[in-house]
Amino acid sequence: MRRFLYPLLVAGFLSLVGYVVFFHKTDPIPKLQPRRSDLALGGEWTNTQKAVEGLLAELRANPDNTKARLQLAEAYIQEGRVTGNHAYYDKAALDLLAEVMRREPENFEALCCQATVLLSQHHFAEGLVVAEKAQRINPYNSYIYGLLTDAHVELGNYPKAVECADKMVSVRPDLRSYARVSYLREIHGDIPGAIDAMKLAVSAGYPGLEQTAWTQVQLGRLYESSGDLKRASAVYQRALEERPRYPFALAGLGRIATAEKKYPQAIEYLTSARRAQPDFTFADELSDAYRLAGQPKEARRCAEDVVEALAGKTGDESEANHGHYADRELAYAYLKVGDPKKALEHALIEYERRPQNIDVQEVTAWAYHQNGQAQKAHTLIKQALRTNSQSPTLRARAGLIALKAGDATGGRALLRQALDHNPYLSDELAGPARRYLAANSVAAAR
Amino acid sequence: MICPERQRRTVGLALLLVLLAGSLVPAQAHPTGLDLSKLSHSAVVWEYVKLGFEHIIPKGFDHILFVLSLYLLEPRLKPVLWQATAFTLAHSITLGLASQGIIYAPPAIVEPLISLSIVFVAVENMLVRKLNPWRLLIVFGFGLVHGLGFAGVLGELGLPANKFFTSLLAFNAGVELGQIAVILLAWAAVGRWTADKPWYHARVVIPACSLIAVVAGWWTVERLFLG
Fold first, then answer.
1. CA distance A128 to B38
2. CB A186 within 8 A of CB A203
3. Mean pLDDT in runs of 10 for chain A (446 residues)?
4. Residue A114 touches chain B, beta carbons under 8 Å
5. Pairwise CB contact (< 8 Å): B35 & A353
6. B69 and chain A: CB distance < 8 Å anywhere?
7. Cβ-defined contact of B108 to A125 (cutoff 8 Å)
8. Among A residues 321-340, those touching chain B with beta carbons less than 8 Å apart
């Protein structure tokens, strides 16, 4: 009996191998996912569906059409931006791009798309390598200089970032290049210049498109952090007129309502934003609004939701998010739920990855500060101030850290700058800053 | 009172079953979240050795079952070493070639073939009492397929361009360490106590390999039709 079983095993195995190799469908093309209720309204979703259906049909008929595959990847990258479903669309786009690059390793557009996804996943060093490869293939394309700018900024190579942004704007002055110039001016302390550049970005965009709405929100944020809530509100309102229910504009109005102590209104705006898109920042801001509105249970729940949402993005806890690095954001989230040790742990993971970035230096310094390590915090926060960023949050944190480290003069100056720049600074920072300055002026008067 | 030998046997089999139970978790590709930003040479070696090891233990249940299947039929040092060497040689070849972009096989083909290879070796273990002379060739062939699977993981992770060979070798070394660890665990749990017993094939190989074949068979169905 056994004599027959072995040949039977071999025959069965070979048949199955033959089936897998010759008949099994090897190239499942990722499909478009349904949008959530609010985002499914309007013509844009219908157009997206039609375009994607067309590309899928083309690929089914002609799987070798790399152009259609590339366009589908681009559509999925944009869909990820619009819906916030990066876990699905980043993977889908990367799979499509891998297939394109397997056939055409030097495909410039595919390399640009791959770098875009890597940067959106916060894999900045890898993104830079891919972007530099694309630049070698085509050094006359402005988009690639945008990617290089982003990668250099995030890795803390600011002079290199400025160089790339200048090149970008000289090749093609448009929404993307003006937005990058604005951000670089902002982190170098030139807020009026940043506002001017962002206005140019907005005016260069087509009204109603997501990219245009995004630049409007960035302009609003610049006004917000300068304490000009009226202008910020007007910009957010305009973004909503052109792109109804745009979640980032709703969240902007929510933050303004929080600053104006209109907490029920703030909660309403932020809840709408969160319903439209599962972005962790909305839950984070909602947590603040609930806390200030005297609803600590809801505040805690939102803060815990943020940790849960981000913990799945670090690559450790869940593989479903395909290694999206969110340790910086997670560090702040852990601080909010009162776990400074975990916060420092994640801040240091991010610091290990990109020690020169000022935002990373800021979060690491703040986590050290919350863990009672004042000197380490002070050393790092001084590095974070090196670009002369006028961010009131950064300056307030730097001020509180300096005071703790024994630098009273420097600390006072930084706190004053923070409050002068933005009187609506979050109460978590503004409270201790005001108390210290008030106590200090009383002592000086005596 | 349970005699000590039987107790040991029970504990050994229980450990094996726990290992197999863990393998019921879907065993697909396992992307890793490592940033390649400016790692030093020694950091690259360490990170990729770790990644290679983790790709076997705890993430590579399919590879664990394959290595266990290789070990179970004749749990003696010489045949295990020969098979492990053939497997290593083969997967190093395809891993290297695929990482260089010289060869490519889509995961949709490689992943079901990996699970089919486990089914084959597990069923073969049940049908024969001793290693066939052509077993080494079969293991070599399967090693080539498993190497393509390892390459899939490295493809998702990426290899630092300036330290390509270092990271590739380090990843391979990690995989080998993982395999050795599986063999040592299997030896400590089962082989040491039961390999020389007359009932070894009937009471250890047949039940363990049946379970392995069922699990790997399920993975094959999952990867072919439910993925």
1. 11
2. no
3. 80 88 74 72 79 90 90 92 84 90 91 93 91 94 95 96 95 93 96 96 92 96 93 96 92 95 96 88 94 94 90 50 78 94 95 95 97 97 96 96 95 94 86 88 65
4. no
5. yes
6. no
7. no
8. 322-323, 325
With residues binned 3-state (H G I as helix, E B as strand, rest as coil), the percentages for chain B, rounded to 5, are: 80, 0, 20
This complex has an ipTM of 0.74
Q: Does B30 touch chain A (CB under 8 A)?
A: yes
Q: Which residue reads 């920042």 in tokens? A: A281
Q: How far is CA A84 from CA A285, B122, B199, B200, in A?
A: 17, 44, 59, 56
DSSP state of B224: I
Q: At what angle do helices B164-186 and B135-157 cross, to 10 degrees?
A: 130
Report how many Cβ contacts below 8 Å link chain A to chain B: 72
- Among A60, A39, A61, which residue's Cα sits nearest to residue A49? A39
* Closest chain B residue to A22, measured at CA: B109
User: Which tokens in the block code for residue A264?
Assistant: 């029920």
The helix/strand/coil state of A8 is helix
* CB-based burial, A306-321: b 16+ in 10 Å, e otherwise: bbebbbbbbbeeebeb
- Phi and psi of A209, rounded to 5°? -70, 155
Exposed, middle or buried, A417 (CB in 10 Å: 0-12/13-18/19+)?
middle
State whether A5 and B127 contact (CB < 8 Å). Answer: yes
- Residue A298: CB atoms within 10 A of its CB come to 16
Contact between A391 and A376 (Cβ < 8 Å) = no
Is the pTM value of this prediction over 0.80?
no
Nearest to A13 among B35, B116, B127 (CB): B116
Residue pLDDT, tens place only, B132-147:
888 899 999 999 999 9
